[in-house]
Design the sequence.
């Protein structure tokens, strides 16, 4: 994860982090990124971990698919929005490459405390850590809340006192679909990037116009989280397939009817963010 994002920071592009929900989605994402020759971050939320059966499942699944599909582009497996130290340590012990500790709902002192606990444990295992400052708005899986804008001074203090690898500053993005035009403070994003000098993360990448994403990259964003966009693309394709094939009951053609839509969305996003041909 650190190699992927440090390279992106140095060369001025961003890498998409796509949430995985099952075997099929993981395969589609890996294949699309291999076709794009793009590095990729596979993200797993706590609710997806529960849905799959536990932390060991996505690790084993990702490793098996990388081997059997002969995936050669860089791949990192990342826990998205770990809401406790325990969830992060479980992911680390299972073999995740990276974890996010989201203590943004806590006081700054507690955010620093819990983030440092995770960083200290992760360092002993060779795992990297992402933290959040401020609060990203909207709702996605079990994560929801109102926007609380990140304070640059607090961002610097959190990075300095925890030695975290990546930072997600909340500056106007939201999880899930946007209501109206997004308003993201890229001026503050750039300031935080320059003062912390670590790769920054943009949560809520779905629905942000292309020109704004490119502006975000210029401001220091190296990782863009994308989930809802793939969910919408897949669902629309599957609904169309079911409407045209009412007698089909085999789950394999039903699920795979959304494959092309997901892959097209991924390849477009990789090209836009500049990660295509960086694998």
Sequence:
């Amino acid at each position: 994860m650190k190699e992927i994002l440090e390279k992106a920071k140095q060369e001025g592009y961003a890498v998409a982090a796509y949430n995985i929900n099952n075997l099929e989605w993981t395969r589609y994402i890996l294949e699309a990124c291999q076709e794009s020759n793009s590095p990729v971050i596979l993200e797993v939320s706590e609710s997806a971990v529960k849905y799959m059966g536990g932390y060991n499942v996505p690790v084993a699944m990702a490793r098996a698919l990388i081997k059997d599909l002969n995936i050669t582009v860089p791949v990192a497996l990342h826990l998205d929005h770990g809401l406790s130290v325990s969830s992060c340590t479980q992911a680390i012990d299972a073999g995740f490459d990276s974890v996010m500790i989201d203590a943004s709902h806590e006081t700054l002192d507690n955010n620093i405390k819990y983030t440092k606990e995770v960083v200290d444990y992760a360092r002993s295992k060779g795992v990297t850590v992402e933290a959040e400052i401020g609060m990203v708005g909207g709702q996605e899986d079990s994560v929801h809340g109102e926007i609380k804008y990140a304070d640059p001074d607090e961002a610097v203090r959190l990075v300095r006192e925890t030695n975290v690898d990546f930072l997600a500053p909340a500056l106007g993005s939201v999880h899930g679909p946007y209501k109206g035009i997004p308003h993201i403070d890229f001026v503050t994003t750039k300031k935080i990037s320059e003062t912390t000098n670590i790769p920054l993360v943009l949560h809520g990448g779905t629905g942000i116009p292309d020109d704004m994403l490119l502006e975000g990259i210029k401001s220091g964003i190296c990782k863009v989280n994308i989930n809802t966009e793939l969910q919408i693309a897949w669902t629309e394709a599957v609904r169309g397939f079911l409407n045209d094939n009412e007698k089909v009951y085999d789950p394999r053609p039903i699920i795979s009817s959304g494959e092309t839509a997901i892959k097209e969305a991924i390849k477009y996003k990789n090209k836009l963010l500049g990660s295509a041909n960086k694998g």
Notes: The chain has a mean pLDDT of 92.
